[in-house]
Amino acid sequence: MNKVVVRTLKGETIKGYTGDFSRSKPSFLLSSDDGSVRINQIIRLKDLKAVFFVKAFDGNFLYKKKLYFDEDSSYGKRVVVKFKDGEEFIGRVETMHSDSEYSGFFIFPLDTDSNTIRAFILNGSIESIRLYK
What we know:
The protein is an all-beta fold. It has one domain (2-57, 71-131). Helices cover 0% and strands 50% of the residues. The chain contains no helices and 10 strands. The chain has strands spanning 2-8, 13-18, 27-33, 38-44, 48-54, 77-83, 88-93, 104-109, 116-122, 126-131. It has an 8-stranded antiparallel β-sheet with strand order 2-1-5-9-8-7-6-10, with no helix packed on it. Strands 3-4 form a two-stranded antiparallel ribbon. The protein is globular and about 45 Å long.
């Protein structure tokens, strides 16, 4: 099971676990635990900004976001994704599908100390994408 933090287009944040996420499916099952009851809900991709696959739900309060990244020879293009709500995500993409084949694309953070392992960004939540220099 993957730990995920889901951000909706309405600004909501939902934390839980999923084992059936696929970029080619319109929805996935998210399980969460409130301490006494296990809650399962179906999450529709069309309602989302992004799905963040994370190391921990609470993150690391000592973490300081990096503002500069060394050039390396890792795979993919280094890009800055700007969401319609103003948030930016800096990462690497192998491929981006601008056609309707998929509803979004995977991106891997340049900052390997980040709590995010990878994210699935929904095309409809993006204001712009530019190369990161």
